[in-house]
Design goal:
single chain, about 40% helix, about 15% strand, binds NADP nicotinamide-adenine-dinucleotide phosphate
Length: about 300
């Protein structure tokens, strides 16, 4: 318990997309405590131990991560510190204290070569430093704290931070035409829906039957980046905003240091069955986030 009288959740990455969503809408019946990175640095095991031991947390939510996929290739040590060593330190400390750990992970643990949505027990095969570091984080969490829930998600967007929807709206204000990759397939997921999913996990934290393991949580339905951009600009145009001409292109025409998985789709059947809540359709959540961004100052073209 803390000042609010509610059981407290320790949240890492509180300034990120998922972290902002969890601070805006905490899991029902819990208070969220989110120390800034300067106080709880995943790359600093001593600060991790200090925070885990600070209170009798109801659970720890690890939404902190090195998420700059391309930059991770040239900053492997930093990416591994945040994505593998940090989760290991969190899992060891929380495991020893008997505190459940909810850990966010990614579709990038897969190579994207499968021709159907990935299930939890499909073999991982990361093709990037980021993906490998996240896969190592999953292993550490699994090994060091039996009371864990690992949520793999994908294509996260929100009103906060750096994400595709915000980037599209910003570019759309400035350009008449945009080329968007149309041969990568995935399930866009709003950070707010992930926060709701974390809430469903937190509702099942205590008791003998508390679920543990790896679960996929990503927006219902599927599309491509081109499909997501089209949806965003249809919404913007309906609101009377400028909408650029969109051209679908191949990944090969948009080279990046890390080759993105062609198939990022995640099968969320197990999450829905286990926690009694299905991820929302990506179309609905994309519309909501687009509306919110359009209603804010940055919808006028001021996005950072
Ligand atoms: N974004 C996606 O499309 C995506 C897709 C699949 C899975 N995921 C996973 O979902 C989770 C949340 O992602 P997100 O999009 O919310 O991330 P995000 O917006 O990039 O935010 C990352 C957060 O992690 C914090 N952080 C970075 N390094 C840290 C460190 N060494 N110690 C403590 N905190 C640190 C950042 O703090 P600062 O503000 O100080 O930098 C920030 O609060 C991550 O596990 C990510 O791997 C994301």
């Amino acid at each position: 318990m803390t000042g609010s009288g509610l059981p407290a959740l320790l949240l890492t990455g509180g300034s990120g997309q998922v972290g902002c969503a969890l601070r805006e809408a905490p899991p029902e019946g819990f208070e969220v405590v989110a120390p800034p990175r300067a106080e709880l640095d995943l790359a600093d095991p001593a600060s991790v131990r200090r925070w885990v031991g600070a209170r009798p947390w109801a659970a720890i939510i690890n939404a902190g991560a090195w998420t700059a996929v391309d930059a991770a290739e040239s900053h492997a040590a930093e990416a591994w510190a945040a994505n593998a060593l940090g989760p290991a330190a969190l899992a060891r400390a929380s495991g020893e204290a008997g505190i459940p750990l909810v850990h966010l992970s990614t579709d990038y643990v897969f190579d994207g070569g499968l021709d159907r949505p990935y299930r939890e027990d499909d073999p991982v095969g990361p093709t990037s430093v980021y993906g490998a570091s996240k896969a190592a984080g999953e292993l550490a969490v699994t090994a060091l704290n039996p009371r864990h829930v690992i949520l793999r998600t994908a294509w996260v967007f929100s009103p906060w931070g750096a994400n595709f929807v915000r980037t599209m709206l910003r570019l759309g204000q400035a350009r008449d035409a945009l080329s968007v990759v149309a041969d990568q397939h995935g399930c866009p997921t709003s950070a707010q829906d992930i926060a709701a999913g974390v809430g469903a996990v937190c509702a099942r934290l205590s008791g003998d039957g508390a679920p543990s393991g790896v679960f996929h949580f990503a927006g219902a339905g599927e599309t491509t980046w081109f499909g997501l951009a089209s949806r965003v600009f249809e919404r913007a145009a309906a609101a009377g905003r400028r909408s650029p001409a969109l051209t679908p292109i191949a990944s090969a025409d948009w080279p990046t240091p890390v080759r993105r998985p062609a198939n990022s789709r995640l099968d969320t059947t197990a999450f829905t069955r286990t926690f009694g809540r299905a991820p929302r359709p990506w179309t609905e959540t994309a519309d909501e986030v687009t509306d919110r961004l359009l209603a804010s100052a940055e919808g006028e073209g001021d996005a950072a």
